[in-house]
Amino acid sequence: MADRAEYARKGIARGRSVVVLQYADGILFVAENPSRALHKVSEIYDRIAFAAVGKYNEFENLRIGGVRYADLRGYTYDRDDVTARGLANVYAQTLGTIFSSAAEKPYEVELIVAEVGDGPEDDQIYRLPHDGSIVDEHGSVAVGGNADQISSYLDQRHREGLTLAEGLKLAVESLARDNNGGERSLTAEQLEVAVLDRTRPQQRKFKRVLGSQLARLLESEGTPADSAAEGESPAEESTDTEE
């Protein structure tokens, strides 16, 4: 079992990191991902999103299974019965079964399931390692790559009430740090950014931050006046994803 765990951890560490953190209006997802087609962050249901690192084909299968679970439960019962905790339990059972099975290799994936609530105190973020355990996270969390170093950086600097621009700045700064303590430069083309925005009037709270909006946020990050201005218009250029 120790060998299987080490195998999975090494596979996950080879991937680029994903950062998830709470900001004033919801939950922000930032991944280092130059691909425009192979997403690490996706919508699952109305208020629920999914982020993953590791082998793409393995976490994509889990994502599809999560969408089917959510759709079926929402249709059979009620949309409010679809929760991040319920989805995390389903993923935990699946990953735990695969990890303990001698008939197949463990999945080289680490997942994050997040649900935005009516207020910051109602937000839920769950991290699911390769062995199927569930970790209830608060504030910020990083997975993949040098996740320990990134998490330490986030823990020291994350605070409640961050604007979207401030949260994005913090996430990018943490992702740009390498194992030797130096910093790289990450551009908008190298990032995949999405949010669960509790202020959206639509039932679906997930949206991607793309194109000129992302470029403006990166350019104006950290300036209070610009952050406030950007906070007024994040829904204008974002897009829903059809999963």
What does this structure look like?
By secondary structure, the chain is of the alpha+beta class. It has a single domain, classed as Aminohydrolase, N-terminal nucleophile (Ntn) domain (Glutamine Phosphoribosylpyrophosphate, subunit 1, domain 1, 4-Layer Sandwich). It has seven helices and ten strands. It has helices at 2-13, 56-76, 84-100, 147-157, 164-175, 211-220, 224-231, and strands at residues 18-23, 26-32, 41-45, 48-54, 109-115, 124-128, 135-137, 140-143, 191-197, 206-209. A five-stranded antiparallel β-sheet has the order 8-1-2-9-10. A five-stranded antiparallel β-sheet has the order 3-4-5-6-7. α4 (147-157) runs antiparallel to α5 (164-175). The N and C termini lie far apart (35 Å). Pathway: Protein degradation; proteasomal Pup-dependent pathway. It comes from Streptomyces sparsogenes DSM 40356. It is found in: Cytoplasm.
Write the layout of secondary structure elements.
Elements: H1 2-13, E1 18-23, E2 26-32, E3 41-45, E4 48-54, H2 56-76, H3 84-100, E5 109-115, E6 124-128, E7 135-137, E8 140-143, H4 147-157, H5 164-175, E9 191-197, E10 206-209, H6 211-220, H7 224-231
Antiparallel strand pairs: 1-2, 1-8, 2-9, 3-4, 4-5, 5-6, 6-7, 9-10
Helix pairs in contact: 4-5
Number of helices: 7
Q: At the third CATH level, what is the topology name? A: Glutamine Phosphoribosylpyrophosphate, subunit 1, domain 1
Helix content: 25-40%
Give the overall average pLDDT.
88
The ordered string of helix (H) and strand (E) elements is HEEEEHHEEEEHHEEHH
Strand content: 15-25%
**Largest sheet, if any?**
5 strands, antiparallel
Strand tally is 10
Main location: cytoplasm
Pathway: Protein degradation; proteasomal Pup-dependent pathway
Biased composition (Acidic residues): 233-243
Protein name: Proteasome subunit alpha
